[in-house]
Amino acid sequence: QVQLVESGGGLVQTGESLRLSCTASGRTIGSYAVGWFRQAPGEDREFVASISWSGGNQWYADSVNGRFTVFRDNAKNMVYLQMNSLQPEDTAVYYCAAVGKEGLQPNERPAYYDDWGQGTQVTVSS
After folding, report:
1. Cβ atoms 96, 86 nearer than 8 A
2. What is the pLDDT of residue 1?
3. Does the pLDDT value for residue 42 go beyond 90?
4. CA proximity to 92, closest of 21, 24, 11
């Protein structure tokens, strides 16, 4: 099992940027796909972005495509989510999650992921 810790959230204004980090410990995350999800109050957890274990492939929700970028540094055991042109509707708790088996491709379904961080709050003011 891997422990994941998200950081980098905060309060920003519309149009600004944030970079979220997902730090893994307990085992190397280099062979595991990772997803980013978010959950706003009263809403279901929704897919934001995901990245293959190698970093060579990324997938994005339509709502963030072109504004967010997911990338990873396997040597540092970290995954990042660069968020540009933030909008009030991006306000949510953001989570990173890892699949439970090496080499699996990522997925948009939260239930597909075995290990989750505690989340980091992102608030975008208008």
Report:
1. no
2. 81
3. yes
4. 11
